[in-house]
Design brief:
Two copies of one chain form a homodimer. Helices cover about 40% and strands about 10% of the residues of chain A. The first copy, chain A, is globular and about 70 Å long.
């Protein structure tokens, strides 16, 4: 039985989520834009899901714009904002997901990059140093997908508000693991994704304070308050709603379960030689551990673990296959050789303590074999 | 039991399609960008689906770019082309779906509009008259979603090729109803959508000849040959593959079944008073009839039919709720009052001859009641 420890890349769809999606997959059809009874049924289902997603993030239903996923949400925010506010100045952190960083740099070439400290934290001083001119939009992710570092956003949001600047945060990795309160936090926009919280792939949301001026970037129909043309993905949206409701109900239990697994793994890792846990001193997501193993290549280790039927990642799934060290670890001034040895373990609610033990055992085996016979290890690569 | 006659808006998911999707909804998880076994399994499933979709349209697998749907495919084509070829000249037909027409006009404000004739056909002379300067891209849909008119694209494609100009066609309404041959047709890009052919919502494709230069418009990961960032919607893509395979197998039987229903409806309509079938003289999709009823308002008729549990549309679902007459009928010089009376019936493979009879009976009832007592009809509106 293979062990899946890559839940920051994607989570397995919850059976209870699938159950509510199935009636919208063939039994009931209709385009939610249609005005007849088939269409109205679909429309109602969307609005019910919107309420649940709003509740998960502490927003009002009308602030939820459904998209095809987190990548589209980040692109809608960046592209929609820069289209609407020509010549705007924006600042984004150095540790953002590529779906935020790449559009920022492509669409606003003069975008400023806010540095991270060695713990992977974005400090107010860094924001103040970077955002010297009047910026229109600052984006700092709530928790990093690789290291799991959770940002202390309050002072950054206060700074943005003082500067009359909008603030966006990518909370894709946070929803379902830590409580969210969009309205109380003061952020103007937030990205979330269903398949990171046991919901379906193919749907995400941009939570949007209407004061933030945004153009649509996908044209055609006037769906989603005229901000996202295209037939709504009803079964996925319905599933997102259910995943959100479950996440609210299970938040305490899931977080505590994940934390137990994470703590057990970190304890075990410290008994192995030459392991460095990245951002160990920072507040982190309860499910994520990223570490380097001195003298090992991360991609090779990943494949060695895969042969032992254990799935981990070396960093973000979206940048897999790239040979460069992670831009997140680079931003934290981790030396390249250590960054290249990175392994990310991200637990999900379905993992158990025996998965932790299986991973520790496998790591110990691989490290010991290599220490006994480095050539043999290299030969199997 | 309600009768669904709005299959150009969306079709019901085929049970056989759902069956192949289910294993990818929870039982097997993994991000296709991940290099471990879970990820590879997802990747393999995508590539298998790509083969099936390619086969449906007569393309090579590497020409299939999966998107979140037809709207995104049209936007990727228009936006990606205009980004990559700054200052390019484009020409689009007046009867395109809004997901083509709106981005064309938004992104290339000087885009030229090719006129339709009174039968809803785009004639070579109209293209020649419009495209006087060197154009870089011409887009004419293969079959219209409202009238069902199928274009004779060959002379238009030949003209484009002579002019050293790329040619795109939106074939969303054609796939599964009429055989397609992307390579042989000489078009450079083609839009298709899964949920129009009994596949899942949330997935479409842009079939792309690599000679057509395109920029990505959604940034982040390098999925889909670096043309569409974002985690692939694996269950939907797998479902699209199966829907494509079924469409190939069932093409003859489905087309002939649809044509029988359509012909029976048209025969019945002609026995009613004051009915005009739009584009009656043109070659049309086997499943689509759009007609006007003298003295009636289309939206009102639609709601009257809805009360009798029959679902039709007045035009495109994506423009439902708009009070203006259809831009397609306007382009055909249909008088506004007749255009405003439009009803579109679009059959699907699940419809039966008794659905046709139910619709004809309901229409006769409504028309007769109104003729006997026009005031009563108005009062119920």
């Amino acid at each position: 039985m293979a062990v899946y420890l890559d839940n920051n890349a994607t989570t397995a769809l919850d059976e209870k989520v699938l159950d509510v999606m199935l009636p919208y997959m063939g039994q009931v059809t209709g385009n939610p834009s249609s005005v007849h009874r088939f269409g109205r049924l679909q429309k109602d289902a969307i609005e019910q899901a919107r309420e649940s997603v709003a509740q998960l993030v502490g927003a009002r239903a009308e602030q939820v714009i459904f998209t095809s996923g987190g990548t589209e949400s980040n692109n809608l925010l960046l592209n929609g904002f820069s289209q609407r506010n020509k010549g705007c100045k924006i600042a984004v952190s150095a540790i953002e997901h590529m779906s935020l960083l790449e559009p920022a740099l492509q669409l606003v070439p003069e975008a400023e990059i806010i540095a991270a400290d060695e713990n992977g934290c974005i400090r107010l001083e860094a924001v103040q140093q970077t955002v010297t001119e009047q910026a229109s939009l600052i984006s700092v992710m709530m928790a990093n997908n690789e290291t799991g570092v959770i940002q202390n956003l309050s002072p950054l949001i206060d700074f943005a508000v003082e500067q009359n600047c909008f603030f966006h945060t990518d909370a894709s990795q946070v929803a379902g693991k830590v409580a969210l309160d969009f309205v109380a936090s003061g952020v103007h926009a937030m990205t979330i994704s269903a398949h990171k919280l046991y919901g379906p792939i193919g749907v995400g949301a941009l939570i949007l304070d209407k004061r933030l001026p945004l153009s649509k970037i996908q044209f055609g129909g006037s769906q989603e308050k005229n901000l996202r043309a295209g037939t709504e993905n009803v079964p996925a949206i319905v599933g997102f709603g259910k995943a959100a409701s479950l996440a609210i109900d299970e938040l305490q239990a899931t977080s505590s379960h994940l934390r137990n697994l994470r703590d057990a793994l970190e304890k075990g890792l410290k008994e192995l030689s030459a392991i460095s846990i990245f951002a160990e001193q920072a507040e982190r997501l309860p499910n994520t551990v990223q570490f380097g193993i001195d003298g090992f290549d991360g991609e090779t280790m990943l494949m060695q673990l895969d042969r032992k039927a254990i799935a981990v990642s070396s960093g973000s799934a979206c940048t897999s296959g790239k040979t460069e060290p992670s831009h997140v670890l680079k931003a934290m001034r981790v030396p390249d050789v250590l960054a290249n040895s990175a392994i990310r373990v991200s637990f999900g609610k379905n993992n158990t303590m025996s998965d932790v033990q299986a991973l520790l055992l496998a790591l110990r085996d691989i490290i010991e074999i290599n220490q006994q016979s480095p050539v043999m290890m290299a030969a199997t690569v």
